[in-house]
Batch of 3 targets.
Target 1
Amino acid sequence: MSENIIKLDGLVPDRLAPKTRKIVLQDFCLPVDIGFHDFEVGNPQRLYVTVEVWVDEASFAAEDDAAAAWNYDFLRTEIARLAGGRRFNLQETFVREIYDLVAARRGVTALRVSSRKPDIYPDCAGVGVDLASF
């Protein structure tokens, strides 16, 4: 069946050609032993993590082939590994570790990592930090 697929080239005007390509892991919710207050230590809290990774054209799949894709399963797996690997006093430290891990990957041209604790204040959706390359 795939041999009957017609590939259309040249239909997108140059002015509409993609300028950026972004992979997103949004609001990954996981328990993290985080915080410096006595009541936080040893009591994992919900933490939402969002990672936005802009990649170069070569790292963004042009064909419908998993082998050509930037591996976003890596984001989820490695963030979960970091979260379970040790305790953190600060969201800043946790986010910095995620940032460094992702920034070292092939094809990354820009990056934003954010986290937020949703259960700190009853009148806020969350408190958190954001780290970006721009």
Target 2
Amino acid sequence: METFVLNIIANSSLPILFMIIAIMLYTLSKGADLLVNEAVALSEELGIPKMIIGATIVSLGTTLPEASVSVMASISGNSSLALGNAVGSVICDTGLILGIAALISPLKIQKDIVNRHGWIQFFAGLLLVIVSIPFTSLSHIFTNGGYISKSSGFLFIFLLIIYIYTSVRWTKNNKDENAVTVEFSGEIENKFMILIKLILGVVIIIISSKLLIPTVQETAIRLSVPNSVIAATLVAFGTSLPELVTSVTASIKGHGELAIGNVIGADILNVLFVVGSAAAFSKEGIHVTPDFFKLYFPAMIFILTIFRLGTILSKDKLRRSFGLILLLTYVVISMLSYL
């Protein structure tokens, strides 16, 4: 079956390939939406507080497209796609999504929560860069790149568990209903139907990912563009659609704290969950191409720094001016990717 699908992709014209990519990105986002909605419904059925669900499942659910694409790509030996998707998603989430959300309406900030999780967000990105650096051959970093070992992947997964645990503890201790919350309307369905829909969401995400990866690879070959570049822009944008829809909708409805919380959580998960899983389940770890050290890692740290400064200097809202800076930074990074 897989060979049959690969043959169809290989024999398709470029417009058809772009159409397949668009459809798969759409189904990825819908699968993630379905998974999140049903997870919230199941949690309410079981009596789990929404504030805990929002702080964990929402960000986890909206990050599943990145995780599925990256893990599948890493297992198939395409580590540049896996890492590029994760790093590109951090840049996209922080620059494009928060930039647009802040331009629509200044985003409310809860200083203690944003600072606490914001520093974790920043240092998670910094840790990713550090574990990628080939300290034994620094002089060749811009020619040979670096390497993320399987042990680093398992370290990230361990840190992810600690992050989720401490987030739940913080939420319980603070009893802050305005942390990262999700609204779920409608009657609670029975547990069996919710479970079926939950599984369906996972299946949609996995199937879409398995079709998306070879299509992106074939498109990159046709356009003579490196996979890492495609992953860090087109695929990263597409798999960030759940965060984009959630954050923009929250901004329009005046729930800026939800938009910020969703993006911060997604960024942390992109590093610890997406890269961690991709490295841990790869055959020999992840090879970090020179492109990351030349552009994507500096761009990620720069945009995370801009966001940190924005939240620190802001009083109770992230102003439109910072949103514009974040958005322009994302545009510049995207343009440099294709130069």
Target 3
Amino acid sequence: MHRSAAHSDVFRAIADPTRRAILDRLRAGPTAVNALANEFDQSRPAISKHLRVLRQARLVSGARVGRERLYELEPMPLQQVLGWIEGYRAFWHISLTNLKRHVEET
């Protein structure tokens, strides 16, 4: 994968549990980076790195408000993940239906 594409890859961004937890936290609304950092057992610079990955994947946006930077969830890129998961949902539905039919016939 090209380096710039890897940086904006939604799947790569959500692969990390801390980044998923940040996204979950931002569902409640915009949050200052310091408030986010206080909710995790990681340093503020580590949280900032996670936020940078999320920003590059366009999953969050940041805006300066006074002396703080507020981050907000941008859920639209997650549509890529939903589309991928839906393919597997159809696969499992068909597979389980076929298994049920096979078990009931034997």
